[in-house]
Request: fold
Amino acid sequence: MAIAKAERLMNLALCLLGTRRPLSKRELRESIEAYLEAGSDDSFNRMFERDKDDLRELGLVIETVENLDGEVGYLARRDSNRLPPITLDAEEAAALGLAAKVWQQVRLAGAASGALQKLRAAGLPEDVDPYEVHGALEPRIPVHEAAFEPLMLACRDRRPVVFDYRKATAARPEQRHVEPWALECWRGHWYLAGWDRDRGAERVFRLSRITGKVRSRSGRFTAEIPDVVTVRETVASWAGETADRSALIRLRTEAGYPLRAKATAVRELGDGWDELEIPYGHGLDAWLVEFGPDVVVLEPAELRADVVDRLRAVAKG
Reply:
């Protein structure tokens, strides 16, 4: 079965690459034996659409052209499917191999492998193995959120999206209309930066807080995309990474390990509580709320008030 499909794909690719004019489905069916053996028109159509998608996934650029009679034809121009001369040294090849290995556990694995195959055909040094393991650690980027792929495609195609988003301080999600700019992984979590149409401002969204499906919307972006989208810097500032002050909190024993990792000083209070001094910057109040009753803010007073306000908002729903 695998050999038969590979032969069918090869025949289809040769037909599309060898023609000087677009070929219709009827002409392609008459030219490829496997299509002639299809039991019905529906069976052929399903087989052809799958094969066409598979070839595009492998990197073949297939054009769809409509003639004057309204009939749709297909071809793969040689100039669109030819890579320019490429020269890569060992370090550059190793970097590409490392990038490909990072994406092996997600939907980008096929695209990454296909890209390396095309680069090998275009002149990648034969003595360089892009997949060679150069260390004891296996590089991986975790992608568990269902929203990752539709948002990645929306960023690539510049398509507005709609999704339900639950903030850390909210009991229920609310709908957000966003023009997605870029995705970035920071400390094991994926974030989306984009233009929030409802608020008329740039916002960063954590993918794990997106509930339900991401729906695409038609139309163009209304806001200008920055030359540099600083997702990581924005998230870091919201998480207090750019702190210029200190806060004093009480933390329940054996709880809040991320807070303990950031603490500059820890003192045991007894009765199941510890006292921590941690960096205080913008967004620390939202982070502390996530730990619920395990954290009590001692000072400064404005941070304590912000955390109390957020907890009251969650309680009211």
Summary: The two ends are 56 Å apart (CA to CA). The mean pLDDT is 80.
